[in-house]
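Please check this one:

***
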Amino acid sequence: MARILWSGIGPWHRTAYGLLTAEFAYRIRDLGHEVVIAVMGRPERHGEAKGAEEVEAAQAGGFTFAHPDSRETKRTGLWDGMRVIGPGTREFGLPPARVVRAAFGGHDPDLIIVLKDPWVLYLDAYDEWGCPVLVWANVDCDPIGQPDLEFFRQSDTIPVAVSKFGLSTMRKHGLKNARYVPHGIDTSYWTPGDQGAARDLAGLPRGVFIAGINAANIGPRKAWGEQFAAFASEVRRGRRDSLLLVHAAPEHPEGFNLRHIAYFHGLNASPDRPRDDDHVRFGSNYNMRSNQMRNWYRSLDVLMACSYGEGFGVPLIEAQACGTPVICTDGSAMSELCGAGWVVSSTPDWEDGHCAWWRRPDAEDIEQAYEAAWQAREDGTTPALKKAARDFGELFDIDRVFQQYMAPVLKELEDRIS
């Protein structure tokens, strides 16, 4: 048995980072290890989040204990029986050494697993621990971003890529000890369902074509402009019985005013007052429960996920596991995550912070993919697409991923520790 410190976003958060903490930490424990979760985030905010912006910040892990689902952990100090400590004095750091040791009964950890972008981590955060440190990293640009590369070159941490693309660019740039462990989802939960019943439950019309976008409205990376423009072109060319459901805060100080973009393209009648005949609808609940998200995916005809870059792209897998085909960009991890749907062309787009390339999707190509998705329904080929989507989603079943990829890495390190 090893003492394993898991450092990441709290398992109550609805982001990919939080979901992966929730799914992987207890499976590691169930192998017989002692697992302590050290949550990241800003320590100064402990009240429950209010309003869309604060909820989205809480979802992202900024307000560690502001998330409404953290109440029980605040009360007990436990998550599913595992001790939870933190946050530390720095947002993406570890709690003080005395706190870590106390959580392990006075002992040092044997292994530290960090689930976070390397470029936000601190080189000195792991210096005092003489144990292996795995950094499970998302790489969303090509090549691997310079800050990420420098972190790995200057630290003794072991890089673990969440995509084959990430593994390839890591090794290409000298990180020969990189491993590959993809994200995973519970495919016994994320399952197909009756689309009509899902729409009835969500108050959506049955007789229209519905696309969806599930993304955080922070920065330009999610290609809001390109995706809205493509959808608007389809509506103008005669697909007026179409809806675009957006699961994101429509306004965010670090993102875009999505209501204004919808109004600019003539998709909605007002920039700030929702109407029943709007083509773009924003959910009133920005922190949907898992059962609500599953119903949301089931109600869609296609998921649009054409961002500039993804370290992985969990919504792509969740949607396909629910039988919903996807549209995504031909770059980063996205290209390997389209089992049923359409991959759109793109052009390089320089991302100065990473000193590397993102990929800007072509709006006209997104429009053509949307038209193909529409036509699949008209041609009666949707059932075959749904089956292919489900079959592909099952490849990323969390138990399969854990046994095939994570467990061998843990065994290798456990042998080294002992």
About this structure: The chain has a mean pLDDT of 92. The longest strand covers residues 3-8.
